[in-house]
Design a protein that fits this description.
Blueprint: H1 9-19, H2 39-50, H3 62-65, H4 112-121, H5 130-137, H6 141-151, H7 158-170, H8 178-183, H9 192-203, E1 220-222, H10 239-242, E2 250-252, H11 274-286, H12 292-302
Antiparallel strand pairs: 1-2
Helix pairs in contact: 1-9, 2-7, 4-7, 9-12, 11-12
């Protein structure tokens, strides 16, 4: 039987929309609002997330590289660290990061708590030490009181610091995207073009790695399966953790949630736009050259994945005291 040329992904989507049909058993689930958190830890972690005094310069905070006004990233190819050092890799979004199988592109941190302590002590990032960070916090009476109320201990330690930051980061989920509304049965939440892009996304094989509620973040895959990926970036991926040559150039698959906000793309930040990223992924990972129309349809679908962004009052940080070490941004 000759295939009817009319039944392209966009045409199929038009029929689905016209019929009021939302597909069942999709390989993607809606993002759920956070259900269980310790509110005391969240409020303390929020302060610590925004507090630049956890850096040697007194200038860099967690929010510097994972800016919650910019999709949880800094929109730079690679982040800026202490003394304007250029970071080695693109800063992944902190939004929905609690859904990741591990943290960092190479998965070297098992969870958010393990990740939170890394930048503080990294000489190329916040350039402090865990000991100095704790010493600084202990000179601020409001922090001492709040840590004791939350953790029930007289002394602050780095385990409490990272625990509180991680608890705050657990709240940074982004439900209620238009695509989530479609998944929940609101067939008019996305357009026929966007639905056609989703169909093409699935039919082309993108869904093999970008699936689940966060459309990624749950596996490590080689960058450049069909064609080698050309980059000047020196990051080697999962091999840095496992030591196995088979893991060379395997990176954690990034989430596609809020992807319209988290440019530039890839571990080296070399894809400046979604259309560029879709073109590269098609050729290098799938062996497919998307037409301009197909590319535009997939990009249209990806833009439906922007959910509700974190919304809260900025924390008022407790003031330093005479005993608080002075920042040294230029030393």
């Amino acid at each position: 039987m000759k295939k009817n040329a009319f039944f392209t992904p966009i045409a199929t989507a038009i029929l689905l929309v016209a019929a009021g049909v939302a597909l069942a058993q999709e390989p993607v689930e809606p993002i759920s609002p956070v259900k269980e958190v310790n509110l005391g830890k969240v409020e303390l972690g929020k302060k610590l997330y925004f507090d630049p005094r956890l850096s040697k310069s007194g200038f860099i905070s967690c929010n510097s590289c994972h800016n919650l006004s910019m999709g949880g990233t800094d929109n730079l190819k690679t982040s800026i660290g202490h003394k304007w050092q250029q970071g080695p890799i693109n800063s992944p979004t902190v939004l929905n990061s609690s859904l990741n199988v591990a943290q960092f592109w190479d998965g070297r941190a098992a969870d958010l708590k393990a990740q939170a302590g890394g930048p503080i002590a990294n000489p190329g990032e916040m350039a402090f030490t865990h000991t100095l960070a704790v010493d600084m916090l202990e000179t601020i009476p409001e922090y001492v009181i709040e840590f004791k109320l939350v953790f029930g201990k007289a002394l602050i330690d780095i385990d409490q610091v990272t625990d509180a930051i991680a608890e705050f980061e657990k709240t940074l989920v982004t439900p209620n995207s238009r695509f989530d509304h479609w998944l929940l049965g609101e067939t008019d939440a996305i357009t026929a073009e966007e639905l056609g892009g989703y169909q093409l996304f699935k039919l082309s094989g993108c869904i093999a790695c970008h699936n689940g509620s966060s459309l990624g973040g749950t596996s490590f895959q080689k960058m450049g399966i069909v064609e080698p990926y050309q980059t000047a970036n020196t990051a080697q991926g999962l091999i840095a953790v496992t030591g196995k040559d088979a893991d060379r150039f395997k990176f954690k698959v990034p989430t596609l949630r809020n992807v319209a906000l988290t440019y530039p793309y890839f571990h080296d930040g070399e894809a400046a736009t979604l259309s560029h990223a879709v073109d590269i992924m098609g050729r290098l990972q799938l062996g497919k050259q998307f037409t301009p129309q197909e590319n535009a349809q997939i990009v249209a679908f990806l833009k439906t994945l922007t959910g509700d962004q974190p919304l809260f009052d900025l924390p008022m940080l407790p003031p330093s005291t005479d005993k608080t070490p002075k920042p040294t941004p230029f030393d």
